[in-house]
Design brief:
The structure is a single chain. The protein is α/β, with parallel strands linked by helices and 551 residues long. The strands form three sheets. Strands 2-1-4-5-6-7 form a six-stranded antiparallel beta sheet, covered by helices on one side. It starts with a strand and ends with a helix. Among the domains are: 201 residues, 3-Layer(aba) Sandwich (Rossmann fold); 113 residues; 30 residues, no CATH class. The chain is built from 17 helices and 15 strands. The mean pLDDT is 86. The longest helix has 67 residues. Helix 7 packs antiparallel against helix 9 and helix 10 runs parallel beside helix 11. Helix content is 57%, strand content 19%.
Length: 551
């Protein structure tokens, strides 16, 4: 629950600090005194967007700080998930700087707005006048029935399965879309694959063929050069081998007298052996060289085919072509497996649909059971609120398709008058009737949802006298379950509070400022008397005020 609120430099408030009662607190004040300012400040605490115009002094930052006692509420997991420091006396702070930047803190840990809202939704429910319109919203109506039916756990299981269902359905759709496109290009891919496959490419073939082509094209020059080499080495009168033998002989004579000459002779002997070996290989290679025009033509045609397909695919090597062939083969294999993939996905969808139908069936049953309970309880409360002929019918409308919340929609049909047909809320209910209907619903929910604090902004709009008294009784009863704060202009309502805060404004140093004070018993009597009779209090008004407080 909200234990205290501190506001600095916000709207008409320079500095304000107030402590709140744990049960039922009333806030009163003249129109324009600043009651809406308090709601605006609390809105910032629970994650609403900040507005720079809210700063009273544009040169200073605005600070809103609220302290909550969260001991009785199971929020440990939320704090742990977000890595916040848990404290039963949790402090939430919001700052707005003069440059328009906003910062938020939970127990001095910086948080973003979504995190602030996540916690705020667990701490405060602010019911302003426009919130009554949410009664017309089908999603709100569905959430209301689910709360009454205790569907939180079941709905969580359903939504998890539904999320999986949507994901698998998306995969199936994408796979079906892919197969349409793939089938359209399958023939072309197969043609490309066959074309590459028929070539029977090897990674180094192009380089090897190019080398062989050069050899065949220059066969005559090669043989001529080798013959010249053989002549120089062996066949002419003064050839290299004979000269080396002569040199060896001369060194052999010299080696008898000179050690170095002996070493040189041995070296020359080794060289002579090497030259003779080379000569033998030249002769062998020369004998093997044979010009083959057919082979040359084959190589030229083969290389032409390779070059052509390389150019076609925008590559320059056989290895790249082989990689392309492998990639095409993988795509063709994938296409061939599409049918199997689709069947598997369809089977998975069917399995999830069975689970969803089970969850949806359970949800439908629980919603159908909760609907008449809500109708009965609302009817009972509306009678107490002076609407004895009012009735609410909750229609559970079945759908064929799954939605994020099940297989049905909820529709509220309402009439406030006897003999008139029930119709949608937006078409039959006035503002005052909607306010009382919302109060009845909030009262029912208060027993189901562990909301620490609920704040009503003029929930009594459109009612007076005895009905206002009944509204106050219901809020009083709600305050036994949770902390209730009500902003009101009706003395019958104001008298019901356990504590009473008055918002007022004064002109100080040429500026209008808003203030708030906790009223004691005498001040409450005076405030109620003014609400009954105006600024000029009569003795009768004071007596009536006392009577209201003593009820």
């Amino acid at each position: 629950m909200l234990t205290s609120l501190k506001i600095s430099n916000y709207a008409l408030i320079e500095e304000l600090y107030v402590e709140l009662d744990q049960s039922f607190t009333i806030i009163t004040g003249e129109t324009g005194a600043g009651k809406s300012i308090l709601l605006g400040a609390l809105g910032l605490i629970i994650g609403q967007r900040a507005d720079l115009s809210a700063l009273k002094d544009q040169s200073k930052k605005c600070i809103i700080e609220a302290q909550f006692n969260i001991e009785k509420y199971d929020l440990h997991l939320l704090f742990k998930q977000n890595d916040w420091d848990y404290d039963i006396h949790t402090i939430v702070r919001r700052e707005i700087t003069p440059n328009g930047k906003s910062r938020a803190f939970i127990n001095d840990s910086p948080v973003n707005l979504s995190q602030l809202k996540e916690l705020g939704d667990q701490l405060i429910d602010i019911h302003s006048q426009h919130n009554t319109l949410t009664l017309n919203n089908n999603l709100f109506q569905l959430k209301l029935i689910d709360s009454l039916a205790d569907n939180k756990s079941l709905l969580s299981d359903y939504k998890l399965a539904y999320s999986t269902y949507k994901s698998v359905k998306k995969k199936l759709y994408q796979k079906e879309e892919s197969i349409v496109k793939a089938k359209a290009e399958e023939n072309f891919l197969q043609f490309q694959f066959d074309e590459l496959d028929q070539l029977k490419l090897s990674s180094d073939e192009d380089e090897e063929l190019e080398e062989e082509q050069r050899s065949l094209e220059h066969m005559e020059e090669t043989k001529t050069s080798m013959n010249h080499a053989l002549n120089v080495l062996v066949y002419q009168d003064e050839n290299a081998i004979d000269l080396m033998r002569l040199g060896k002989s001369q060194l052999s004579d010299a080696s008898k007298f000179n050690k170095i000459a002996e070493e040189l002779k041995e070296r020359l002997s080794s060289l002579l052996i090497e030259i003779q070996d080379i000569t033998s290989e030249i002769e062998s290679e020369n004998n093997n060289l044979e010009y083959d025009p057919d082979r040359l033509e084959f190589i030229r045609n083969r290389l032409s085919s390779i070059y052509s397909i390389q150019k076609k695919h925008g590559v320059s090597t056989n290895q790249e072509l082989i990689d392309i062939k492998s990639s095409i083969e993988s795509k063709l294999l994938e296409i061939s497996n599409f049918d199997n993939d689709i069947e598997e996905l369809k089977l998975e969808v069917s399995k999830i649909e069975l689970l969803l139908n089970k969850y949806a069936s359970d949800l439908t049953a629980r919603r159908n059971s909760a609907a008449p309970i809500l109708e009965s309880k609302v009817k009972e409360l509306l009678i107490r609120l002076g609407m004895k002929n009012a009735s609410l019918t909750v229609k559970v409308i079945s759908n064929q398709e799954f939605s994020s919340s099940g297989k049905e929609d909820i529709q509220f049909l309402f009439t406030a008058n006897k003999g008139l047909e029930e119709r949608e809320l937006s078409k039959v209910a006035s503002g005052g009737e909607l306010s009382r209907l919302m109060l009845a619903i909030k009262s029912i929910l208060a027993r189901k949802v562990k909301m620490p604090t609920i704040i009503f902004d003029e929930i009594d709009t459109g009612v007076s006298g005895e009905i206002a008294d009944k509204v106050g009784d219901i809020l009083k009863l709600m305050s036994k379950e949770l902390q209730v704060v009500s902003i009101t202009h009706l003395p019958q309502m104001a008298a019901k509070g356990n504590s009473h805060l008055k918002v007022y404004k004064e002109d100080i140093d040429g500026e209008t400022r808003s203030f708030i004070k906790v009223l004691n018993n005498e001040e409450r009597i005076e405030e109620l008397a003014k609400m009954l009779s105006g600024s000029k209090m009569s003795v009768a008004a004071i007596d009536n005020a006392k009577a209201l407080l003593n009820q």
